[in-house]
Amino acid sequence: MRIVRQIDELRRAAADFPGLAFVPTMGNLHDGHLALMQLARERARHVCASIFVNRLQFAPSEDFESYPRSFEADCARLRAASLDLLFAPDETVLYPEPQTFVVEPPTIAGELEGHFRPRFFHGVATVVLKLLNCVQPRIAVFGKKDYQQLHLIRAMVRQFDLPVEIVAGETVREADGLAMSSRNAYLSATERAEAPHLQRVLQKVKAGMECAEAVQILTARGWKPDYLEVRRRSDLAAPEAGDQERVVLAAARLGSTRLIDNLEF
């Protein structure tokens, strides 16, 4: 595995790996990330990943400074997965000057996750655009756990005519159904035992339960839900009669940890 930290070094290295598939991450890797690497490997001969904790998508009150970082362990896992190329820039590389140009996402970015994390998707879209420009992959792989993010990245790539195919990876779960996430490390033992109930409640919504009742169930169990809503898959608008492809999306706090999940139906 070749590790590069500068953009010009990355582009020279990428020339040795034509037709790259790319998996951007913020590090602290788990099996969900590795599943995305495997999906990338199925689509391309060579795979590049990035590790970069993007300050632009964190609000001042959020966990940028404390976000779990485990670079050496991440590298060991990536080597074991036979990754070809790792781009690991620091902030001075991706943001050598204040990032005054940012991507302005559409209105849907202010709903659901974006309602509770204002300008979150401005930061996500901006860094993803920069990373795609740096790596210039043929394919980029993103997980469905961040469902709204995946929707917005697909739209951005389409509207900017970027020459990259966006591939969606299914959410990887623990044996008890909890969606794998780097922030699961924040959970206490008691909270970890409770955490799978978020997915179980989404299953009940899929089976016909009203969202308001699902929120009441979570609240009674000690959760603090931000949102739990059914949306149309194609554009994340509120579904209308006759819309068959839907997704229920949720974000809720368990103790100090904020978890997100979704379920297509």
Q: What attributes characterize this protein structure?
A:
Rossmann fold, 265 residues, Pantoate--beta-alanine Ligase, Chain: A,domain 2, alpha/beta, six-stranded parallel sheet, 20% strand, single chain
Please tell me about this protein's structure.
This protein is α/β, with parallel strands linked by helices and 265 residues long. The protein folds into two domains: 2-169, HUPs (Rossmann fold); 182-264, Pantoate--beta-alanine Ligase, Chain: A,domain 2, CATH 3.30.1300. 35% of the residues lie in helices and 20% in strands. The chain is built from ten helices and nine strands. The strands form two sheets. Strands 1-4-3-2-5-6 form a six-stranded parallel sheet, with helices on both faces. A three-stranded antiparallel sheet has the order 7-8-9, with helices on one face. The chain is globular. The N and C termini lie far apart (39 Å). The mean pLDDT is 97.
